[in-house]
Here is the input.
Amino acid sequence: MTDLRIELPGLQLKNPIMPASGCFGFGREYSNFYDLSKLGAIITKAATGTKRYGNNTPRVAETSSGMLNAIGLQNPGVEKIIASEVPFLSNFDTSIIANIAGSSIEEYVAVAAAFNEAPQVAALELNISCPNVKEGGIQFGTDPLMAAEVTAMVKRVSDLPVYVKLSPNVSNIVEMAKAVEKAGADGLSMINTLTGMQINLKSRKPLLANKTGGLSGQAIKPVAIRMIHDVSQHVSIPIIGMGGVTSAEDVLEFLLAGASAVAVGTANFQNPFVCSELIDELPSILDKYGFSSVSDVIGKGVIV
Amino acid sequence: MTDLRIELPGLQLKNPIMPASGCFGFGREYSNFYDLSKLGAIITKAATGTKRYGNNTPRVAETSSGMLNAIGLQNPGVEKIIASEVPFLSNFDTSIIANIAGSSIEEYVAVAAAFNEAPQVAALELNISCPNVKEGGIQFGTDPLMAAEVTAMVKRVSDLPVYVKLSPNVSNIVEMAKAVEKAGADGLSMINTLTGMQINLKSRKPLLANKTGGLSGQAIKPVAIRMIHDVSQHVSIPIIGMGGVTSAEDVLEFLLAGASAVAVGTANFQNPFVCSELIDELPSILDKYGFSSVSDVIGKGVIV
Amino acid sequence: MIKKVEMLISQRRIIALDTVELTLKNKYISQTARPGQFLHILVEGHSLRRPLSIASINKVAETITVLFKINGPGTKKLSEYKNGMYLDVLGPNGNGFQIEEHDNTILLIGGGIGVPPMYFLGKHLVEQGKKVISILGFQSAGHVFYEDEFEALGRTIIVTNDGSYGEKGFVTDALRLVEDFECYYTCGPLPMLKAVTAKLNDCSGYISLEERMGCGVGACFACVIPTNDHFGYKKICKDGPVFHSKEVSL
Amino acid sequence: MIKKVEMLISQRRIIALDTVELTLKNKYISQTARPGQFLHILVEGHSLRRPLSIASINKVAETITVLFKINGPGTKKLSEYKNGMYLDVLGPNGNGFQIEEHDNTILLIGGGIGVPPMYFLGKHLVEQGKKVISILGFQSAGHVFYEDEFEALGRTIIVTNDGSYGEKGFVTDALRLVEDFECYYTCGPLPMLKAVTAKLNDCSGYISLEERMGCGVGACFACVIPTNDHFGYKKICKDGPVFHSKEVSL
Ligand SMILES: Cc1cc2nc3c(=O)[nH]c(=O)nc-3n(C[C@H](O)[C@H](O)[C@H](O)COP(=O)(O)OP(=O)(O)OC[C@H]3O[C@@H](n4cnc5c(N)ncnc54)[C@H](O)[C@@H]3O)c2cc1C
Ligand SMILES: Cc1cc2nc3c(=O)[nH]c(=O)nc-3n(C[C@H](O)[C@H](O)[C@H](O)COP(=O)(O)OP(=O)(O)OC[C@H]3O[C@@H](n4cnc5c(N)ncnc54)[C@H](O)[C@@H]3O)c2cc1C
Ligand SMILES: Cc1cc2nc3c(=O)[nH]c(=O)nc-3n(C[C@H](O)[C@H](O)[C@H](O)COP(=O)(O)O)c2cc1C
Ligand SMILES: Cc1cc2nc3c(=O)[nH]c(=O)nc-3n(C[C@H](O)[C@H](O)[C@H](O)COP(=O)(O)O)c2cc1C
Ligand code: FES
Ligand code: FES
Here is the structure.
């Protein structure tokens, strides 16, 4: 029997597969498709201090082997999430990782502190890289000093392990990773979306109301693999890898690159069963390539 | 009759379509498929001071809607290029843009100076962004000071207009563009490839011998459009746009984003006739979307 | 409940200019779908599914019909699917049209590719013994489809933008030709919906909306529309695509 | 000269485990291709073309046969193409095998999916009145193909890695079973080519190489191999895929 378990700071995962933030809401819709208890973990949609409406529509566009999104962190606010969404998710035997975002350090800190009151939440994913909001988000994700500061401040107030979600839109991802590791991050989550744009030929305007959006899906997988491979050689905290994961082979590729677990985003839209199917297929793929457990694989592709 | 002509520093192009550097060699192979005189221009494979063998193989890998390459600037050296390749290309009624690269400012300067002796060459494309060579290349492409310096030094020795080719692997592309504009660049060329990696599941090692490679093709088009759109609002020099161009609609999208001409790379491998076909199809696509000339389109999609 | 199913293409017809009708076989969806719901269809080579309204069902033959206009690369590709091939489909998605028991005469207003869901609804209403009047707008004579089908349901007025068939103008121009309806249902391009709801501001009505979608099931927040109560919103894919005309802010 | 052509798939057969034979119709390529040349085939949904050796041609029927093993997503997809469909192909690419007039007895050594070009070559040599001996290596009995076809050309020794058919071991183990050949031609996986060229170091021979390709026509420098003269190189797609065994450095 292939051992799919993996242990990460604050997380005892039965398998390394989890839906990525923003691509699975708070699980309700996908719970109609399969039993969410099957998942290694669930990363919830970003929570902010207060309710946000987000950007105008259109918010998504299709691209070759990918998509652009500019949702703009729409969410009911952290209190409502703790009151209505977390209890729903805690019906399932899986770990809840709460993605948190903000426009200011104060907002991040407030959201992080609020999640201390939600004992069902196992870890925080600190989204310092959302490209689709006017303030905050992206600056935190591209400046190592700001990234370190928000990480340290959140660590100070939070009782939970903190996984910092890195933006790929930087010249030097290793520098970012080291900065947040030093500031106390328990793990990394990478990559968020690449900033992109599509122009509508008819209107002659950017198709998304927000003009730019985040590029996700299979198109960005090579960028994700490269960054995870590089970063894993320079930090000692674990990485939740993501960016285009669609098949069990992709999961293996991310683990080889140095990720310890894998999140699946855009692929849920094509196939709502994708996470469940990946969990089913992973043992035979590991076996095919000569591995007997997930922990056996991690970082095997990394040449030091 | 739709007017496809476009005038750029040093270049009177009969149409805005040209093959991108490294994807068309020095034109010989593709001259068997169609008459190269049809092309707006040809950007040649990178020239370095002396002959380079480049990286070990495998040098390319397929990705979803794209590819990775790590050729490593293989070329016979600038003297040989001027002696054997430029004369061949000057048989055709098209503009030659010579792509130049180096490991040091001295090498860039030497290559640029050498091209002064090749009157058939109409412009230089300064490749400060090749991610596939150990030295030089990428540092010039990610540090605005170094980018400005190499641009200024090349401008000092060259009699030709210089188009600086920017790397997308940066936190702030506008800053890079402004730096080289200030240093005297006559135009920009963007984007080069995104750094990526693929891991071979069987060998458990990066598939490319060079480990990382440059991601090109349709996958990166949204990133290219975004960067061109942003940069075109902050510089006053023209942009040769590239990154995933495959269809005449793509050409129009790049022009709307703010490019003044368009280079086609990876698509040549799928369809050796692609540049020729784009030139044929462009008038009807312009017409369909209500334009009567190429110059009419440029930057129409840019919201200031 | 939305399921992910394989649907056999049992018939493919070009029914008007750039307009394709596909008849798909699937038991579950044919038995459960309600007027106004849609299918979310995976098209090879495309990362996002394409939403298409259900244009009719046949519970006996266990088939579902969709109609679509070739609009871009995805619908182009879908138009090339052949009989005997299978489609990967999510469905039935969304909430259907709400039908008020007490209404007896109902006006259907469909514009272009907004016509298909009107047909499913019209058939359903007639089965329930209601009287149906239809106004269908198309670009030109060549784009007209399903005229006979709607005629079989009740009085049908065809409008073409260029006047090449039926009345000339927009569907709203034809409103003066009908009277005495208790409720209207409409689907079509946004400008049409805006014009219709403005003109029929005093009537009770339901509209079916379109928006670019990610998940199509309510998880990604791609397809929201603000509601008329302050700061509220609805998801078109899950709470809609049908809304009361007063509920959302177009 | 390489042309870009549409090729009709006139026959598709599974001829061994995971091994597919496609017969393709095209006049130009059937009349011009030489043994050792390859086709560069576009597979839907894949950004890079797939190189496949020509396994035989029929000038009368104007057909070309290729054989391939399902190896990854591209060849998997290609294996799903059906009779009557068209392939977008560049060809004929590369330089074929050089045939030395004076050689009379020729040894062909093919390993796995390196067997197909040996067949085209063998047929050609026999037509020219030469004597051909073939050593063909496969993984197991289930992978063996074209045994009868090669038998028709001359003595044929089948080797399987697991011994489930023919001789057990590698093609090099079977070299002791043949003698008196003037030249050898070989194609197969790199370790096999290394072993063969090392073992037959004293013989004149030609090898056909594989490498990941971009353009397939000589423009992109993806597929180079160092030559044995200092600092030189050759492009496998354009200067090869066939080289003299002493020319390149494996
Ligand atoms: C609930 C609903 C029901 C629909 N029913 C029908 C129908 O019955 N018949 C029909 O012809 N069309 C219908 N549409 C519109 C149809 O979905 C689009 O025409 C189609 O998705 C366009 O795809 P494309 O590849 O041709 O265009 P592209 O422009 O290439 O599509 C790119 C992306 O934009 C999306 N998109 C483009 N136009 C629209 C649009 N108008 N609405 C939503 N998404 C869009 C696509 O789904 C895709 O994700 C419906 C839309 C919705 C939301
Ligand atoms: C000149 C030449 C002739 C060939 N002739 C044959 C033949 O007759 N029959 C046959 O079965 N195979 C042949 N091959 C190998 C065949 O091209 C590969 O098996 C095939 O490209 C693999 O594609 P894939 O999608 O299955 O694998 P993937 O691994 O998904 O392919 C990914 C990329 O790598 C390339 N690639 C992977 N393996 C190879 C390889 N061994 N050689 C070159 N490129 C590779 C693919 O072309 C593609 O670009 C030949 C290769 C060359 C270079
Ligand atoms: C529609 C959509 C919404 C997203 N929302 C969030 C979010 O709220 N917070 C966040 O950290 N990442 C968000 N992401 C990014 C994903 O979590 C993920 O990092 C990215 O999409 C790459 O993975 P993928 O290619 O598998 O989608 C979103 C992505 C998409 C496509
Ligand atoms: C095989 C290959 C080789 C390349 N070589 C060069 C080069 O020598 N110099 C350069 O400036 N860019 C080089 N490029 C980058 C292209 O010119 C182009 O910027 C990039 O590929 C994006 O365009 P595309 O998506 O149309 O390919 C190369 C790209 C490829 C795929
Ligand atoms: S499309 Fe995802 S919420 Fe509607
Ligand atoms: S594949 Fe491009 S040179 Fe050989």
Chain D has a mean pLDDT of 94. The first strand of chain D starts at residue 3 and ends at 16.
